[in-house]
Every structure is written in structure tokens, then in C-alpha cells.
Amino acid sequence: MVYKKFSLPASNCLHKCRIWTICQHSIGTRRRQNQKLEIPSGKTKNISTETLIKLLFFLHGMKMAILVRTDLKMGKGKIAAQVAHAAVEASHKVSKLKYYRWKLGGQKKIVLKVKDLKELNEIVSKAKKEKINTVIIRDAGLTQIRPGSVTVAALGPDDDKKIDKITSHLKLL
């Protein structure tokens, strides 16, 4: 079988050693993730059509949705902290493959509002049925909120279409 060759300029994001080796590793070459690939400035790296298609598929369409309860009347700083907790926890809980796809695809996140705990729990249960990674964050109660209150939930990272199927009716925060 003959493959058409594509030439990627070294200025492309793929020339960064860490990203290139992770992509190479994920699509089947047996390169260690921490092994560096040297691509001199101004040179090109040829890859096959099949590899390019696999790479584009690998990087396509991953995101995380973070749901914030609006009935708690949290301040902006409190919301920011809770969203950060959810994003970090969800990214640690997901599989390595999904994590790298999400990370290399730009770490897309969307923050949405839900009116109360009941709506948050309904969406989380739908996500669990679809086998989407879910994380629920409970506040420690040191500042604005009662201890143990559910403040936010994170869905994903997972495929855009799976996340959108569950969260498309929600509004941005």
C-alpha cells in the first residue's frame, strides 16, 4: 500500500517535542511518551495520510462541561474556585486517552448554570447513563456556603456530541 505524504512545517504545533511524541504514541508507534523528537527549525516532518487522519481524529471534539448552581448565590470568586476544583478533579478522574485528547485539543471547557440541586442531579444521572465521567464538588463550608453543600458538577472531558446531547438546553453562566 502506498501512502501520499504530507509535509508539515516545523512551525506547526506538531514540532513541539512533547506534543509530537504523545500523538505518535497514541496512534500506534512504539515511542516512549517522554522520548524527545528532534525537528530542526525550518525543516519538515513527513507523515502519511493515514497518520494525519488518525491524528486529526485524535485531537477532534473533546470538552468538559461544568454546571454551577445559581440558587446558592455564590460570589464570583467562590464560583471561580468551585469551577477550578471541578475541572481539576474531573481531569484527574478520566482515562489517560481521553485526558490527552482533551489536553491536546485545547482543553475546552464550558461553564453552564443550573437553577438548583434537583436539576444538577438530573443532568449528572443522564451523564452517568451515557458513561460520561462525572464529578460532584461539595463545599467545605469555610466561607459563604454551608459545609457539604453541592456547588458544582463537571461532566467529561468527553466527546463534544455526548456532552452537548445532555447540556444543550442549559445557558452559559
Short overview:
With about 170 residues, the protein is α+β, with helices and mostly antiparallel strands. The chain contains six helices and seven strands, in the order βαβαβααβαββαβ. The chain is elongated.
Describe the structure.
- The protein is an alpha+beta fold and 173 residues long.
- The chain has two domains: 5-59, no CATH class; 62-172, Bit1, CATH 3.40.1490.
- 40% of the residues lie in helices and 24% in strands.
- The chain has six helices and seven strands; from the N terminus they run βαβαβααβαββαβ.
- It has helices spanning 17-26, 49-59, 76-93, 96-104, 117-129, 160-167, and strands spanning 5-9, 44-48, 62-69, 108-114, 134-138, 150-159, 171-172.
- The chain starts with a strand and ends with a strand.
What are the SSEs and their pairings?
Layout: E1 5-9, H1 17-26, E2 44-48, H2 49-59, E3 62-69, H3 76-93, H4 96-104, E4 108-114, H5 117-129, E5 134-138, E6 150-159, H6 160-167, E7 171-172
Parallel strand pairs: 3-4
Antiparallel strand pairs: 1-2, 3-6, 4-7, 5-6
Class by alpha and beta content: alpha+beta
- Approximately how much beta-strand content do the residues carry? 15-25%
Assigned CATH class of the largest domain: Alpha Beta
CATH architectural name of the largest domain: 3-Layer(aba) Sandwich
Tell me, what's the shape?
elongated
- Spatially, the strands of the biggest sheet line up as 5-6-3-4-7
Residue share in helices?
25-40%
Main beta-sheet strand count, sense and barrel state: 5 strands, mixed
Cα Rg: 20 Å
